[in-house]
Amino acid sequence: MRNRSRVLELAILGLLHSAPMHGYHLRKRLNEMLGLLRPFSYGSLYPCLKGLASRGLITSSAEDGAPNAGPPRRGRIVYQLTDAGSAHLESLLGEAGPASWEDENFDVRFALFAQTDAETRLRILEGRRARMAERLDGINTAIKRGRPADRYTQELQRHTLEQVEREVHWLEELIDSERGSRRGQNGSPPLSDAAGSPPVSVATINTTSLKEHQ
């Protein structure tokens, strides 16, 4: 629960760094960032905002309501990042340890890559690729040990293998792109292998593993 709260805090700070937002807009953007990736409870949002405000990382103020003939309406609350919040966010985005590429954190870190420096982006991508390659090796080892007891378990194993292979391949493409961008900024063209062909990926090496053991 603590780790999930930290992920939510990072997502909120990252979104507020772009612009101040009222609660409804913030909920909508968080749902876009987190909703498709993990269950997101609206009930967890406001306690998190309250905690960030108590630590001086964000401030809140009432937005003026639209004029009307009836009694005045209370304006929506707008949340904004403080200088301390910006500094804290910068510190968080500069972290590139193992936690940043684990399942619980990687998707949010990746969603905030536009605010992350190039060197940190590359370290996180390489760390995630190494972790997923380890996972892929574990799946292939399990496959080699023997055929699953039933076809449903076998299908689940195949599905998991294909998912991990796709992610490894995707990560390798991103890493190549990041490295190419950095070389381009230094005035050097992207490097290629001697034969001029793309490097062989872990995913390519392992694509036939399951078929060989069925």
What's the domain count?
Answer: 2
- The 3D shape can be described as globular
Give the overall average pLDDT: 81
Helix content range: 55-70%
Instruction: Indicate the proportion of strand residues.
Output: 5-15%
**Category from helices, strands and their pairing:** mainly alpha
Tally of DSSP helical segments: 9
Q: List SSEs in N-to-C order.
A: HEHHEEHHHHHH
- Low-pLDDT runs: 66-72, 187-214
Count the strands?
Answer: 3
The Rg value, from CA coordinates, equals: 22 Å
Order of strands, main sheet, comes to 1-3-2
Architecture overview:
By secondary structure, the chain is mainly alpha-helical. The chain folds into two domains: 84 residues, Winged helix-like DNA-binding domain superfamily/Winged helix DNA-binding domain (Arc Repressor Mutant, subunit A); 88 residues. The chain contains nine helices and three strands. α1 packs across α4 and α6 packs antiparallel against α7. The two termini are 40 Å apart. The C terminus is likely disordered.
Short key terms for the protein model shown above:
Arc Repressor Mutant, subunit A; globular; disordered C terminus; mainly alpha; 214 residues
